[in-house]
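Long-time lurker, first post. I've been practising inverse folding by hand and with some scripts of my own, and I keep getting stuck on stretches where the structure tokens seem ambiguous. Below is the full token string for one chain I'm working on. Before anyone asks, I'm not after the true native sequence, just a reasonable design that respects the backbone. If someone could post their per-position residues I'd love to compare against what I wrote down in my notebook.
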């Protein structure tokens, strides 16, 4: 059984180009991180949807 190590920091929001995909690492409330891999087209679509929801 693996040893459980306490998390000291989940780090900041990160977005990185890795290979052919874009990796988003999003810290979550309560600890941990959500890691999402997407294509460039998916990232552009997400960007547009987020922008549109903020403008309304």
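-- Answer (accepted) --
I ran through it position by position. Result:
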């Amino acid at each position: 059984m693996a040893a459980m190590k306490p998390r000291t920091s989940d780090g900041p929001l990160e977005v990185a180009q890795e290979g052919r995909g874009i990796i988003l690492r999003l810290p979550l409330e309560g600890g941990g991180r959500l890691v999402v891999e997407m294509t460039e087209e998916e990232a552009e679509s997400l960007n547009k949807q987020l922008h549109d929801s903020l403008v309304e």
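A couple of notes from the structure itself: The chain is about 30% helix and 30% strand. The mean pLDDT is 85. Happy to go over any region you disagree with.
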